[in-house]
Amino acid sequence: MSSNTPAQNPVEQDEEMLKRVLLHPSSLLRAPQFLGMKALDREAFTKKIPTVAAYIKDKRDIQKVRKAAGPVFLLDPLDRTIVDPKRLYGDEGKQTYILPLLPSVKIDDESTMPADLAQLVKENKVELVSKEGTLTYVDFGSEEILKSILPRDRYDGIHHGFTLTGHIAHLNLHGEYANFKNAIAQVIMDKNPTVETVVSKIEDVGSHSEFRTFPMEILAGKLDTQVSLRSSGCSYDFDFAKVYWNSRLENEHDRIANLCSKGDAVCDVMAGVGPFAIPAAKYNRALVWANDLNKDSYESMVQNIQKNKVTNLVYPFNTDGREFIRLCSKALLRDGGKTINFDPNPPNAPRDPAINTKLKPIETYTIPKVFKRFIMNLPASAVEFLDAFIGLYAGLESLFQDPSKSAATPGEAEKFPLPIIHVYTFNRHNIKDIEEAAKEICQTVSGYLDYPMRVERTENLRDQYVQSMQVKSKENNAKKATFSGEAESALAAPKPEESFSEGSMSVGYVRAVAPVKSMYCVEFRLPWEVAFRTPSKELTEMEKKLEQMKNIWLRSDEKTQWPGKPKQ
Ligand SMILES: C[S@@+](CC[C@H](N)C(=O)[O-])C[C@H]1O[C@@H](n2cnc3c(N)ncnc32)[C@H](O)[C@@H]1O
């Protein structure tokens, strides 16, 4: 198009250009295809591509040329930035000012380029030259490389996805993708600067390890599984090879922590290294009794409690979850009413208000006699621990709010509500079949409680939480609404409504774990009949042991400050 060409209607002109852009081969910048490449050959990704190079004669014209050549630039595969000429043309790209254009630009055909560019060519401000460019492994993103070598993924990355835990990328490979583990590990190391180690589990988590750890194979990078990371606004240190951690549960940890309120007593039965307990204490000032049977988890949890300065709010234990439910509940009945102090100031801050104007007052909490909620995140088997709630408060009916009475009945408001239980479980049905999942889960839960429960609602917890955070961050201006923001904003966050009629449960979808395995959180208030049922049968050996232990606790020195010493 020369300056003599009759002026075109601008809309038509834009459409013309659009057509031409659309005609350009989109595969130009795609990585070459090596479906089935199991040993990564980086060299093989070197690819020659035809381009047109625009040589700009005077660097003062750079902006003019950029503006004029807009629609015919060679953009990266995501159509965002111009492909770097230094990479495309090697040394020449470094020395001269060149911009790469699409090969659909024909040097001797003005109609293939924007009119303004043709004009600059005419004015000798820019010279167009057909030129071969070179793309290498470095130019392609990890998705692009993986797509080029892996069999087609039918499950949205679930077959070859990885989770990041500190510096460790943990591959979760299923089926035929396992054969590509080394190549995938190399690509992940190459393309993610923060990844220093890539591991893969050898066996299915849960079916082989009661602690939900897994024998792992280090596929690439340094042999170091000691991790430091931040999650839910808290810091954690642990050995990834010895304890359970899943970064994909951060939203769920936040959700539960956010349900807790100041001074609530919370019992985290399978606490791991503390990702529910620590944020609930740090940001919502819950008093958390946190237990894990795995000694390594317990030890990391103790460190993490100190690290996050919630020592007076989270009390770590190392025992079996079933025993813990019963012993802790009894101990709380005995020791509730005592007070604990929490100093929210940094340890080294001056305590003299005349010197430290930011000094916060010491917070005092009265330990409740009853847990507000129990958290049981051991999806492979936590429902089996539910029988520990049968008869938990037998004989203590007068302490509790009776669900058959109205809240206005005199004296009811001063009593304790029965605890809410959040128990995690797996089910073969995913979110699409949540009603089916709920039916099956309800049956199982009813079995372990020996009480007919019913499903009151099903929920997509994952989506709900993400949406609520989006709404909050809009309202509260980004950071403030999340745990990574200020503690005060989390404290002030409105708590979701938790209403459970007697014997009803909600079944919430948390996440897909594998193509036919999803994680759910079942939530319900402990039914009255279950809590106060008098065991009719003879005590089992385990129950006898519990009774004995209970007596030891009850005899223990009253002066021992509760929260008592962690049970070793
Ligand atoms: C899925 S992990 C959850 C850990 C933590 N709550 C989280 O969200 O990351 C389950 C935890 O249960 C612990 N565990 C396994 N059996 C247990 C038992 N009988 N009693 C208490 N904890 C147990 C494991 O050691 C593991 O840390």
UniProtKB/TrEMBL annotation:
Q: Which reaction does it catalyse?
A: guanosine(37) in tRNA + S-adenosyl-L-methionine = N(1)-methylguanosine(37) in tRNA + S-adenosyl-L-homocysteine + H(+)
Q: Return the Pfam families for the record.
A: TRM5-TYW2_MTfase, TYW2_N_2
Which terms does the record give in the GO molecular function aspect?
A: tRNA (guanine(37)-N1)-methyltransferase activity
Localization annotation? Mitochondrion matrix; Nucleus; Cytoplasm
Question: What processes does the entry annotate via GO biological process terms?
Answer: mitochondrial tRNA methylation; tRNA N1-guanine methylation
Which superkingdom does the taxonomy of this entry point to?
Answer: Eukaryota
Query: Segment Disordered: which positions?
Result: 476-502
* Record's keyword annotation contains Nucleotide-binding: no
Q: Where is the SAM-dependent methyltransferase TRM5/TYW2-type domain?
A: 162-528
Q: Which is one Gene Ontology cellular component term of this protein? A: mitochondrial matrix
Which keywords annotate this record?
Cytoplasm, Methyltransferase, Mitochondrion, Nucleus, S-adenosyl-L-methionine, Transferase, tRNA processing
Bilayer-crossing residues are: none
Annotated positions binding S-adenosyl-L-methionine: H253, D292, L293, D320, G321, N377
Entry similarity comment: Belongs to the class I-like SAM-binding methyltransferase superfamily. TRM5/TYW2 family. Belongs to the TRM5 / TYW2 family.
| Role played | Specifically methylates the N1 position of guanosine-37 in various cytoplasmic and mitochondrial tRNAs. Methylation is not dependent on the nature of the nucleoside 5' of the target nucleoside. This is the first step in the biosynthesis of wybutosine (yW), a modified base adjacent to the anticodon of tRNAs and required for accurate decoding.
UniProt-listed PANTHER family? TRNA (GUANINE(37)-N1)-METHYLTRANSFERASE, TRNA METHYLTRANSFERASE
- Name of the protein: tRNA (guanine(37)-N1)-methyltransferase
